[in-house]
């Protein structure tokens, strides 16, 4: 004999959860798979973007460094040219100053000292032969004779010669003639202009 009984639910109808069908489970699993794949693709895209950004940043840094060193090389070359030009200008000024100073000094030397210098140069040339004739301008004959007294061992005969400049000497030996001129010697002492390379 069947007996009908009533069961009282605590929450009433809320405890009657709907029944989930197999189709709904399949759809839910498919959605979960799609979401996982989407996350994986997103991670790959983010990783690729980060790598691309890093490579781009490295390229930008390399280009910036190349541009910097190029500018630095240009500035150094410009500075080097300026230094060369400055050195060339300084050397040119020094040459002029030296030439002017030397010319002034040589011009201010008294004639007596000029002749002494020429006579010493003759002695340095090892022309101390037994017989020689020392020629000078007549105006310098007395001065030269006084100088020769300090070299009494030399058998040099002093002879005036009108054609000689006052600040010159000529020594005539059996081997030949040796001519010394103060003006010519002064020109030889002046610095020769040096060709400098263009910067």
From TrEMBL:
One Pfam family named in its UniProt record: HrpE
GO cellular component: cytoplasm
Similarity comment: family membership: Belongs to the SctL stator family.
This protein's name: Type III secretion system protein
Xref: InterPro entries: T3SS_HrpE/ATPase_suE, T3SS_SctL/SctL2
UniProtKB keywords: Cytoplasm, Plasmid, Protein transport, Transport
Superkingdom of origin: Bacteria
A biological-process GO annotation: protein secretion by the type III secretion system
UniProt-annotated location(s): Cytoplasm
């Amino acid at each position: 004999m069947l007996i009908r009984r009533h069961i009282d639910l605590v929450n009433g109808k809320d405890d009657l959860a709907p029944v989930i069908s197999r189709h709904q489970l399949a759809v839910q699993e498919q959605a979960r798979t799609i979401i996982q794949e989407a996350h994986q693709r997103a991670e790959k895209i983010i990783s690729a973007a980060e790598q691309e950004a890093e490579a781009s940043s490295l390229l930008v840094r390399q280009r910036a460094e190349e541009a910097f060193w190029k500018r630095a090389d240009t500035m150094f070359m410009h500075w080097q040219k300026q230094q060369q030009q400055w050195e060339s200008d300084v050397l040119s000024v020094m040459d002029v100053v030296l030439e002017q100073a030397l010319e002034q000094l040589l011009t201010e030397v008294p004639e007596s000292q000029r002749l002494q210098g020429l006579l010493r140069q003759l002695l340095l040339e090892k022309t101390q032969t037994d017989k020689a004739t020392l020629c000078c301008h007549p105006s310098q004959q007395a001065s030269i004779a006084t100088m020769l007294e300090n070299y009494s061992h030399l058998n040099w005969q002093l002879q005036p010669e009108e054609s000689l400049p006052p600040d010159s000497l000529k020594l005539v030996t059996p081997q030949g003639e040796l001519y010394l001129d103060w003006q010519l010697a002064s020109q030889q002492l002046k610095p020769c202009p040096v060709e400098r390379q263009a910067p």
